[in-house]
């Protein structure tokens, strides 16, 4: 059983966005003026929204990557997202993948960069990343590309190519 593990280091922008949001969102809860006659349920609902947002984004944090017998496992906070690599056609380390990319649906920097993005040269692609300056793009024959950001992109690409 061949196993390779890679951490997912956070970019400075991810750290800043996450710290500022972690401080501001709970602060907003205390700063929202509510009418005196609002019910406890209404107050609780309004206060819960920013806290649920933080908790949800924290759960989807990308903590690292493992390559185990032809499967990429993206380590999350409480689980692993499994991506079979059997239909992988290419793995390439690229700078500027996020340049001019549009986030279609997902998280743009609260504990990770995840979701679906679009860029003219790539088309639609899935992101499971912690930085945006460089990344590894995985191209498949049967699905949209996936972008990841392991700490050692060159070794990651070499390990994927050696296993296929």
What would you note in describing this structure?
The chain is of the alpha+beta class and 164 residues long. It has one domain (1-164). The protein is 31% helix and 36% strand. It is built from three helices and ten strands. Helix 1 (12-31) runs antiparallel to helix 2 (40-59). It is elongated and about 65 Å long. The mean pLDDT is 92.
Helices and strands in order:
Blueprint: E1 3-7, H1 12-31, H2 40-59, E2 64-68, E3 71-75, E4 80-84, E5 88-95, E6 102-108, E7 113-119, E8 123-129, E9 134-140, E10 146-148, H3 153-163
Parallel strand pairs: 8-10
Antiparallel strand pairs: 1-2, 2-3, 3-4, 5-9, 6-7, 7-8, 9-10
Helix pairs in contact: 1-2
Most strands sheet: 6 strands, mixed
β-strand number: 10
The share of residues in helices is 25-40%
Which geometry do the CA atoms define?
A: elongated
Give the strand order of the largest sheet, numbering strands 1, 2, ... along the chain: 5-9-10-8-7-6
Strand content: 35-45%
Distance between the terminal alpha carbons, to the nearest Å? 14 Å
Topology as a string of helices (H) and strands (E): EHHEEEEEEEEEH
- Look at the structure and give the mean pLDDT: 92
Given as residue ranges, the uncertain stretches (5+ residues, pLDDT < 50) are: none
* Helix-strand makeup class: alpha+beta
Q: What value does the Rg take, in angstroms? A: 19 Å
DSSP summary: helix tally: 3
Domain module count = 1
């Amino acid at each position: 059983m061949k196993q390779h593990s890679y951490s997912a280091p956070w970019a400075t922008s991810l750290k800043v966005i996450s710290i500022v949001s972690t401080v501001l969102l709970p602060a907003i809860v205390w700063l929202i003026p509510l009418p005196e006659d609002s019910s406890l349920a209404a107050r609780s609902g309004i206060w819960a929204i920013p806290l649920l947002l933080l908790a949800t984004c924290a759960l989807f944090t990308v903590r690292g990557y493992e390559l185990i017998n032809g499967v990429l496992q993206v380590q999350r906070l409480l689980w692993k997202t499994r991506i079979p690599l059997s239909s992988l056609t290419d793995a390439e380390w690229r700078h500027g993948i996020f340049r001019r990319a549009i986030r279609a649906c997902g998280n743009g920097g609260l504990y990770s960069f995840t979701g679906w993005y679009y860029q003219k040269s790539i088309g639609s692609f899935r992101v499971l990343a912690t930085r945006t300056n460089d990344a590894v793009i995985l191209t498949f024959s049967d699905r949209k590309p996936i972008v990841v950001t392991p700490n050692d992109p060159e070794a990651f690409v070499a390990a994927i190519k050696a296993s296929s």
